[in-house]
């Protein structure tokens, strides 16, 4: 049975406002390789927003929100959905699997969360079953060189978009166009499926029938002109949060290519993926974990292969929300973060999972790399150098104290405060929030 009044109960558990009322347009962006815990702070920041807009990616994202004893794992729907006052918008830059969106909306409805206000941009592109099949086949074809994608069809859907073969959400509204476009794209993709990969072709009309019968009737009222919705909200003086998925170093242009996703999670991506100009952006909050993790392949200078790494994975429960894959662990890398500040114009940092380090004897912070005998403080643009980079660490005594009840800066042991202060100095932007546990109220406002 759906729980009535869930939203009110949830809202009453938020401990305090965070003072964003003068900041109309805020971007939240991951600053590492994803899984920084963006969902939690997005949810927190969302409280003072009237709209939360996803601007890129698709259901390769997995945002977990813990509310009391309840856990919500969202893939496509923006994090602000748990608040009744928020309009959650899936922007034009997102790739949308309509079946996944339906499942997610069903799950939310079933748990008493209203999905009535969810809007999906008519210009967002669809992920359809052939994208997923092609994603898996490409990965298999790459063998040892595989990227470790989530196999959700993200790359093939963005590739179709770039090839001008993509199908947009709005195309579902015109059956003739939808069928014609499916015939065109499958005329191409079926050749790849059958001739390159020896698979069965997908029937365009059967697929059209399924999407139009199962998805369109439910999604129709949610399909919208998201660009004008966002601008009308900003013009009316409302606060809008732009929610990035994945992260800076998974960015198609700025990440560790080719081990990246196929969109632009960096703050600039919000402009293209939501239809706003850069002058609208007032605040860019970077989310960083107190250590680093990465899923899939690719360079990772501070990666740990020792007991400390296993401990981070175990305590931090570092397994994919969607895929269950073990994440690769490592120490916090300030070299990467300084680059993330530049790429995103970060105005501040929010640190997550500080409590995961509670039991460590020593906590390490990478402040520079040694590459071919030289000390390097900027992220090398040549990726071969990144593969050879040896981290130079500053070491801090561990605080060996439970932080999960710390809700004020004064509750932090001196060692944890020193670590945060040094991290902030190294990165060059203020840390304003630190998370001390998975729960919605387990965080503190930090100011050194
Ligand atoms: P894709 O986005 O599924 O194409 O995967 C490309 C790369 O991005 C792979 O290394 C994935 O593990 C990584 N990736 C995609 N989405 C996420 C995410 O939400 N968190 C962390 N890594 C991700």
Can you describe what's shown?
The chain is an alpha/beta fold and 448 residues long. Mean pLDDT is 93; it is low at 10-18. Helix 4 crosses helix 5 and helix 6 (175-196) crosses helix 7. The protein has a ten-stranded mixed β-sheet, sandwiched between helices. Strands 14, 16, 17 and 18 form a four-stranded mixed β-sheet that branches. The protein has helices spanning 6-12, 38-46, 98-110, 129-142, 154-162, 175-196, 204-219, 226-235, 267-274, 307-315, 334-344, 383-388, 414-427, and strands spanning 25-30, 51-54, 63-67, 70-74, 87-90, 95-96, 119-121, 125-126, 223-224, 240-243, 283-289, 292-294, 328-330, 332-333, 348-352, 362-371, 374-376, 390-397, 431-435, 443-445. A hairpin with a 7-residue loop joins strand 19 and strand 20 (443-445). The chain contains 13 helices and 20 strands. The longest helix is centred in the middle third of the chain and has 22 residues, at 175-196. Bound molecules: inosinic acid (IMP). Inosinic acid is lined by residues 34-35, 60-62, 147-150, 152, 154-155, 245-246, 250, 259, 261-262, 295-296.
């Amino acid at each position: 049975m759906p729980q009535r009044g869930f939203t009110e109960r949830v809202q009453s558990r938020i401990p305090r406002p965070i003072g964003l009322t003068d900041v109309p347009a805020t971007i939240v962006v991951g600053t590492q390789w994803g899984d920084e815990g963006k969902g939690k702070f997005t949810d927190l920041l969302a409280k003072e927003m009237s709209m939360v807009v996803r601007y890129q990616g698709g259901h390769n994202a997995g945002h977990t929100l813990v509310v009391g004893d309840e856990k919500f794992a969202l893939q496509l729907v923006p994090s602000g959905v748990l608040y009744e006052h928020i309009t959650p918008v899936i922007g034009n830059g997102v790739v949308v699997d309509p079946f996944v969106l339906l499942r997610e909306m069903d799950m939310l409805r079933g748990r008493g969360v209203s999905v009535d206000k969810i809007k999906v941009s008519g210009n967002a592109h669809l992920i359809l079953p052939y994208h997923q099949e092609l994603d898996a086949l490409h990965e298999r074809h790459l063998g040892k060189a595989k990227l470790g994608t989530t196999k959700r069809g993200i790359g093939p859907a963005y590739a179709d978009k770039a090839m001008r073969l993509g199908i947009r959400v709005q195309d579902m509204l015109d059956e003739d166009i939808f069928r014609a476009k499916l015939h065109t794209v499958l005329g191409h993709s079926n050749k790849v499926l059958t001739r390159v990969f020896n698979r069965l072709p997908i029937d365009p009309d059967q697929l059209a029938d399924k999407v139009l019968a199962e998805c369109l009737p439910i999604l129709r009222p949610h399909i919208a002109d998201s660009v004008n919705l966002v601008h009308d909200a900003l013009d009316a003086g409302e606060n809008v949060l732009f929610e990035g998925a994945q992260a800076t170093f998974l960015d198609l242009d700025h990440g560790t290519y080719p081990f990246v996703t196929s969109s632009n999670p960096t703050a600039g991506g919000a402009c293209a993926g939501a239809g706003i100009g850069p002058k609208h952006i007032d605040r860019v909050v970077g989310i960083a974990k107190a250590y680093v993790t990465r899923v899939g392949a690719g360079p990772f200078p501070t990666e740990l292969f020792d007991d400390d790494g296993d401990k981070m994975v175990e305590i931090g429960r570092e397994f994919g929300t969607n895929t269950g894959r073990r994440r690769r662990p490592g120490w916090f890398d300030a070299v990467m973060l300084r680059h993330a500040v530049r790429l995103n114009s970060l105005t501040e940092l929010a640190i997550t999972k500080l409590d995961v380090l509670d039991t460590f004897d020593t906590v390490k912070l990478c402040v520079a790399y040694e590459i071919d005998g030289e000390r390097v403080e900027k992220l090398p643009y040549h990726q071969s150098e990144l593969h050879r980079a040896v981290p130079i660490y500053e070491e801090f005594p561990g605080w060996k104290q439970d932080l999960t009840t710390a809700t004020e800066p004064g509750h932090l042991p001196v060692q944890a405060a020193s670590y945060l202060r040094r991290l902030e100095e190294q990165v060059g932007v203020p840390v304003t929030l630190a998370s001390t546990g998975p729960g919605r109220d387990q965080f503190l406002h930090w100011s050194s």
